[in-house]
Amino acid sequence: DTEVTQTPKHLVMGMTNKKSLKCEQHMGHRAMYWYKQKAKKPPELMFVYSYEKLSINESVPSRFSPECPNSSLLNLHLHALQPEDSALYLCATGGGGAGYTFGSGTRLTVV
Amino acid sequence: DQQVKQNSPSLSVQEGRISILNCDYTNSMFDYFLWYKKYPAEGPTFLISISSIKDKNEDGRFTVFLNKSAKHLSLHIVPSQPGDSAVYFCAASAEWAGGTSYGKLTFGQGTILTVHP
Q1: DSSP-assigned states of every residue in A8-19
Q2: In this predicted structure, what is the pLDDT of residue A99?
Q3: What is the full DSSP assignment across B26-68?
Q4: Strand A106-110 relative to strand A10-13: parallel, antiparallel, unpaired?
Q5: Phi, psi values for residue A47, rounded to 5°
Q6: Which of A48, A72, B28, B50 is the most exposed place for a label (fewest CB within 10 A)?
Q7: Number of Cβ atoms within 10 Å of the Cβ of B38
Q8: Is A50 on the interface with B (CB under 8 A)?
Q9: Can you tell me whether residue A111 is helix, strand or coil?
Q10: Contact between B32 and B68 (Cβ < 8 Å)
């Protein structure tokens, strides 16, 4: 079983669209994360949720809006994105010495 | 300022031999280090980790060594297999030293490992 599930796997959206990325984990961790990875670059942290509260926002533009409805779910709402926002968006959970488990990611293309 | 550096963009190794991937860091607050393997268009897959209270951790063919005084860690893969060919990322975090940094993994640029049959 995949421990961190991300949907959709691929997403193409226009610059005026509103879409959402979803992440689900059943590992019992209370922290969840969004990372962004551009081609040939390392993943970069965007947001951290701890106990369903936003604890870190790495100066991410407001066109990215995270949401943590409960301890198992993490969403990333997208609105008015730019072509340069095209990337692999990764969800992760874990921390505190327990390691971090990543999902397979959503490949986002903004046209 | 790149706090985690992998200075070798690529490494080529013969099957059965040892692969050694290196990583340096500058932030002395880092107390937890991880290695991930990544294939294109997939999420990173956790390989092995080490906390700053240890200098070595082994898991099967993978061993991570930590030299805190040199701020250097390395991943040894023995024996290397063609299926090990991927991008390897070193990552670090301040799990215990900095409460507000909890969960903030800082990644190196990655090393492309190619294992030839």
Answers
A1: -SEEEE-TT-EE
A2: 83
A3: --TT--EEEEEEE-TTS--EEEEEEETT-SEEEETTEEEEEET
A4: parallel
A5: -140, 150
A6: B28
A7: 23
A8: yes
A9: coil
A10: no
**CB B23 within 8 Å of CB B6:** yes
Q: What is the mean pLDDT of each run of 10 residues along chain B (117 residues)?
A: 92 98 95 93 91 95 97 98 97 74 83 97
Question: Hey, which residues does B13 pair with through a beta bridge?
Answer: B115
Smallest CA–CA distance from B96 into chain A, residue: A96
Tokens at A95, concatenated: 């921390």
Q: Residue A1's pLDDT band (boundaries 50, 70, 90)?
A: low
H/E element, A25: strand A18-25
Q: Are strands B10-14 and B111-116 parallel, antiparallel or unpaired?
A: parallel
Task: Quote the DSSP letter at residue B99.
Answer: G
B41, A102 contact by CB (below 8 A): no
Chain A contacts in chain B segment 42-101 (CB below 8 A): 42-46, 49, 51, 89, 93, 95-96, 100
| Contact criterion met (CB < 8 Å) for B95 and A95 | yes
Rg (CA), chain A: 13
Interface probe for B, chosen from A33, A34, A40 (most Cβ of B below 10 Å), is: A40
CA dist B73 and B49 (Å) reads: 11
Q: What is the C-alpha separation between A89 and A104, in angstroms, rounded?
A: 9
